[in-house]
DNA sequence: TCCGAAGCGGAGGACATACCTCAACTTATG
DNA sequence: CATAAGTTGAGGTATGTCCTCCGCTTCGGA
């Protein structure tokens, strides 16, 4: 609801654009706000028509301001993506690797449950759109995950056969539950995340996990699993 | 590939139909075979056009033989559904409840990974189509799952806070992985199923699962998660 | 106050996908 | 070989998304 801090797009670009007319700037903010809501609810697959309708403007206006979906996403998600990265670093500060891991998983799952668009970006197709100042999110979060996993392995708290590549997959499974249970039992995903967390804990009797995923495997799965922002063409 | 045992639809119905012409019966078998393949690959969302094309017949022929999707599904999946139920009973025969549970989960996950249509039917919308002799699949498998869970709880091998309602959810998560990894790493889902299984095992340190799912919750999630066979109307 | 540039809206064209029908044609079989 | 049974696939209906374009409205500087 609070429409503060949306950031009128002054400077930050090649920038030879004159400032928008007052009414136009207002509409722009409305569009951004609407985009956040719509993408949060329906994921990146949401359409421009939905955003326009929610913002109470014509479709043409949305297109005029954001000629491509990427342009809109970049602005709408800038802040959320930063939060996501910040959260990961926070997790790293936990006293033990295990706590860091659990904290990260729970936070990420929570964020992805609340904002389906963020999930799509964080786990998926973000590769395809060059995000403004920051690189694509996976590049910023992945090294952190890697360090967390390493620490947990050193402690011996995390079962040895788990790798960083598993993390995105776990989050996809959980966010899938979150998404489909949202209307009925929005917290349902906690349950299955906890089950997975308990499965990750080192224990005397745990089964064989088989060959680990490679980064390419994960990439391919994400591409197939999550919506591809860009319309085919 | 073997096209044996498809069962020409003699008797078994109100039945006043005369036998099909030889060429028609052949086409019918082709269609059923094609339907099995297509539904296995693409799930219940597959279209009549796909089936027709795969069978090498015109769309009109498919419609003539199977006026509704349900009619086609009923025939195409009769055997697979029976297998599914048989498998569940087999699991029940395991020496311990825990082994029964693990066996059931692995078998079900495997079947759902191989046949996406079966998954859709087993976990989802089967409610909507009244399946020929057998009731909808969930009704036949659910009591078995329930007994397995009970036994495992009595033994104390399964953590106490897990319920039957969790089983379909676990299978959905896993089959989602199976589906999206199919082209790259078809066995990937084993890994995540194992993680879940290890999370299900009773252990000194396992986290709090929160409120269990109710049958209605599961119903609602399944409805939202899995394709609704029937076109809207 | 006024007017030109900036902005707006949303009908509608282009395209894709799915469902399902039907009239013209082909084929098995008594 | 006559005829009922069967086949075909183009095309009508419906739905949904993308995106453009042009007539109209509004802002804001002169």
TrEMBL record, chains A, B:
Database matches in InterPro entries: Homeodomain-like_sf, HTH-type_TetR-like_transc_reg, HTH_TetR, Tet_transcr_reg_TetR-rel_C_sf, TetR_SbtR-like_C
Ranges for domain HTH tetR-type: 25-84
DNA-binding region(s), chain positions: 47-66
Residue segments, region Disordered: 1-22
Family annotation (PROSITE patterns): HTH_TETR_2
A Pfam cross-reference name: TetR_C_43
Keywords: DNA-binding, Transcription, Transcription regulation
Compositionally skewed regions (Polar residues) per UniProt: 1-11
Keyword Magnesium attached: no
Family annotation (PANTHER family): HTH-TYPE TRANSCRIPTIONAL REGULATOR BETI, HTH-TYPE TRANSCRIPTIONAL REGULATOR RUTR
Protein name: TetR/AcrR family transcriptional regulator
The organism of origin for this protein: Paractinoplanes ovalisporus
């Amino acid at each position: 609801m609070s429409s503060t801090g949306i950031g009128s797009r002054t400077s930050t670009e090649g920038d030879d654009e004159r400032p928008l007319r007052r009414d136009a700037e207002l509409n722009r903010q409305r569009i951004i706000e609407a985009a956040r809501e719509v993408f949060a609810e329906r994921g990146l697959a949401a359409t421009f028509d939905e955003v326009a309708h929610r913002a109470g403007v014509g479709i043409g206006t949305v297109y005029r301001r954001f000629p491509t979906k990427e342009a809109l996403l970049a602005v709408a998600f800038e802040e959320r993506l930063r939060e996501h990265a910040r959260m990961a670093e926070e997790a790293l500060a936990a006293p033990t690797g295990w706590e860091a891991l659990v904290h990260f998983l729970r936070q990420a799952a929570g964020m992805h449950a609340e904002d389906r668009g963020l999930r799509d970006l964080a786990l998926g197709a973000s590769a395809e759109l060059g995000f403004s100042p920051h690189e694509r999110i996976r590049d910023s979060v992945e090294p952190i995950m890697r360090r967390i996993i390493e620490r947990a392995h050193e402690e011996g708290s995390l079962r040895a056969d788990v790798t960083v590549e598993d993390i995105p997959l776990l989050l996809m499974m959980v966010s899938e539950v979150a998404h489909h249970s949202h209307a009925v039992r929005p917290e349902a995903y906690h349950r299955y995340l906890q089950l997975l967390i308990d499965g990750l804990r080192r224990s005397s009797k745990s089964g064989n996990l088989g060959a680990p995923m490679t980064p390419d495997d994960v990439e391919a799965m994400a591409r197939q699993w999550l919506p591809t922002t860009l319309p085919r063409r």
